[in-house]
């Protein structure tokens, strides 16, 4: 049995960051990854990078197959770079195999050819990510015309007609992307509208723009049954009995923590009701020497929150542990629609419910000089502030470059910079950020 100072299970964002850090501190580290096509994790291989690349190429008029080929090249390059960033370190060993816990301190690694090896460590870090969660449906769910986000982006032939089940992040981003490539896209949404938790004005703008771009929404229905009709057609039966036939179905119905087969029953690690690994404020599990980082625990499922999980663990191991899960504030996000939508903080209604003296301002992007240069007049920016204290409470940006601008808003909120500072700041010109002069004029 080989003993390590640390074993990290999964080559995800937090796992690889921690592996590099620990090896740099002279810890003997084992990083175990079950799939050679996943070095670098979900983001690089099957998620953020390939989907945003395909979106970029779709919106710039590329042909689908050429974009998929370019995506494959970029992913391979990044995967290789990621592998070497750990495998080439003196104190780190990358194991190709599936990790299974035998006890709180021992892991069995099973490689492709069935060879098994037991490793032990003082500290173990679980970073196994999440997998697509497909609701229990009747019918031909194993059909080759049923896709997840992972399999659809590898398909080289563009489906003429695509049905997307689910109107969350993946549903709306894939609808935007495949519609731009030229597919006829329908999105099945169980609620009576998309983005229920978002500001109503912004939600209405996004829905209007997506509809105008040609995306069809079927609201208030669930997918209940799937039936393969022919070699090229597949039908989804909805809860109202209506049928929707297309050439491909994408399930974008959420992602669940990847704990299956990890052997957690052999440890003192407990799961939450949602099936995620239960952690405390320092991401320590119910076994003192085992930590969980990234999508495998409940909560946010983003690459940057996974990276931030690494910071929490690092602070706990080597510093005062002051930076913990609860001290993480103002988690922002971007949905890469066209244009993208980004948010941090509260809506006006939420702010009032929390008792703030809140007010808001909104600014249509058609009134911004840069929009005319960009030839993109769609979009709406909104800001919510506390008029008593000057605190920025929420920023909701639907428009070009919102994925960048939101970081500026988050920075201001994290550091308690009053909204008047963003209002009175001198920005260069003509750029999107100068919108803040007007947006924060509340
Ligand atoms: C289509 C899509 C688009 C997305 N777009 C964005 C985006 O634009 N921005 C953003 O911030 N987030 C995005 N996300 C979310 C983001 O990809 C994830 O939150 C993030 O990658 C999770 O990283 P992680 O650190 O939890 O681990 P992961 O990167 O998921 O890594 C887990 C690794 O563990 C391995 N593994 C699993 N079980 C075992 C085992 N038993 N033994 C050994 N290895 C194992 C897996 O093979 C995998 O490589 C997207 C997700 C999807 C699906
Ligand atoms: N830009 C980004 O940062 C980005 C992009 C993609 C994914 N992600 C991450 O990946 C996670 C997973 O994304 P997702 O879109 O799969 O999940 P999601 O939770 O955002 O959306 C899932 C949707 O599926 C619907 N649904 C469930 N069962 C259904 C059924 N039978 N019929 C019709 N609809 C059904 C749900 O109502 C929900 O709206 C996200 O939570 C996000 O953290 C992030």
From TrEMBL:
Co-factor: note: Binds 1 FAD per subunit.
One Pfam match: Pyr_redox_dim
Record: residues binding FAD: 52, 295
Keywords recorded for this protein, A-Z: FAD, Flavoprotein, NAD, Nucleotide-binding, Oxidoreductase, Pyruvate
Binding-site list for NAD(+): 166-173, 254
Keyword Oxidoreductase among record annotations: yes
Cofactor(s) for this UniProt protein: FAD
Disulfide pairings: 43-48
Residue ranges of domain FAD/NAD(P)-binding in the record: 5-306
Any one GO MF annotation of this record: flavin adenine dinucleotide binding
Domain named Pyridine nucleotide-disulphide oxidoreductase dimerisation: residues: 333-438
Domain of life (superkingdom): Bacteria
Active site, per annotation: 429
Family: Belongs to the class-I pyridine nucleotide-disulfide oxidoreductase family.
Protein name listed in UniProt: Pyruvate/2-oxoglutarate dehydrogenase complex dihydrolipoamide dehydrogenase (E3) component
Taxonomic lineage from the root: Bacteria, Bacillati, Bacillota, Bacilli, Bacillales
């Amino acid at each position: 049995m080989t003993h390590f100072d640390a074993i990290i299970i999964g080559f995800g964002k937090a796992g690889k960051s921690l592996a590099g850090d620990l090896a740099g501190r002279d810890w003997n580290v084992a990083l175990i990854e079950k799939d050679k096509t996943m070095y670098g994790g979900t983001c690089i291989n099957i998620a953020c990078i390939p989907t945003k690349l395909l979106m970029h190429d779709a919106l710039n008029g590329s042909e689908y197959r050429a974009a998929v080929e370019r995506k494959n090249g970029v992913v391979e390059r990044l995967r290789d770079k990621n592998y070497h960033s750990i495998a080439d370190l003196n104190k780190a060993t990358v194991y190709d195999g599936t990790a299974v816990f035998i006890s709180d301190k021992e892991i069995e690694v099973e490689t492709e050819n069935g060879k098994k090896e037991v490793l032990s460590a003082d500290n173990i870090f679980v970073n196994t990510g999440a997998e697509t969660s497909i609701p229990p449906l009747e019918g031909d769910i194993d059909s080759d015309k049923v896709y997840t986000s992972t399999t659809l982006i590898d398909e080289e032939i563009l489906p003429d007609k695509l049905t997307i089940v689910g109107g969350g992040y993946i549903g709306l981003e894939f609808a935007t992307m495949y519609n731009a490539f030229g597919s006829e896209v329908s999105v099945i949404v169980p609620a009576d509208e998309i983005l229920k938790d978002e500001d109503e004005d912004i939600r209405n703008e996004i829905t209007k723009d997506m509809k105008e771009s040609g995306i069809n929404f079927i609201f208030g229905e669930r997918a209940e049954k799937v039936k393969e009709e022919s070699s090229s057609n597949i039908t989804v039966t909805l809860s109202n009995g209506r049928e929707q036939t297309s050439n491909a179905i994408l399930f974008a119905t959420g992602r669940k923590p990847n704990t299956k087969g990890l052997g957690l029953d052999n440890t003192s690690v407990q799961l939450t009701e949602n099936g995620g690994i239960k952690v405390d404020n320092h991401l320590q599990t119910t076994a003192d020497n085992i930590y969980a980082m990234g999508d495998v625990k409940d909560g946010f499922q983003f690459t940057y929150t996974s990276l931030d999980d690494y910071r929490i663990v690092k602070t706990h191991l080597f510093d005062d542990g002051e930076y913990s899960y609860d001290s993480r504030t103002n988690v922002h996000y971007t949905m890469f629609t066209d244009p993208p939508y980004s948010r941090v903080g509260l809506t006006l209604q939420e702010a009032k419910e929390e008792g703030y003296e809140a007010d808001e301002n909104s600014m249509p992007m058609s009134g911004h000089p840069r929009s005319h240069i960009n030839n993109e007049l769609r979009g709406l920016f909104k800001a919510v502030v506390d008029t008593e204290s000057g605190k920025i409470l929420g920023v909701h940006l639907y428009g070009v470059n919102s994925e960048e601008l939101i970081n500026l808003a988050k920075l201001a909120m994290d550091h308690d910079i009053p909204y008047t500072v963003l209002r009175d700041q001198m920005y260069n010109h003509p750029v999107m950020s100068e919108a803040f002069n007007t947006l924060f004029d509340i």
